[in-house]
């Protein structure tokens, strides 16, 4: 069986190819930590509840984008799958069958 090379073109690092993925992972992780911190302090004011609601909506948007983004490298695909696995373990949640299918389609070229 012949292996397929997935190296970045000369002069382009693998990290650059997945720049959007890394930005989403970073933003999602920071936002999730911020939400968790806000939730541990019961929001006392309507302004605090409003800020929390906005952050939750942004997290949901980023999560949907993260599920569908197609990594450009094997390293990016592995990182995405690991991040999603850790997120599900930490939040003690799961994905429905159609969401799992979307994730797998997004990384299928690296499987």
TrEMBL record:
It comes from the Bacteria. This is Uncharacterized protein. It comes from Phyllobacterium trifolii.
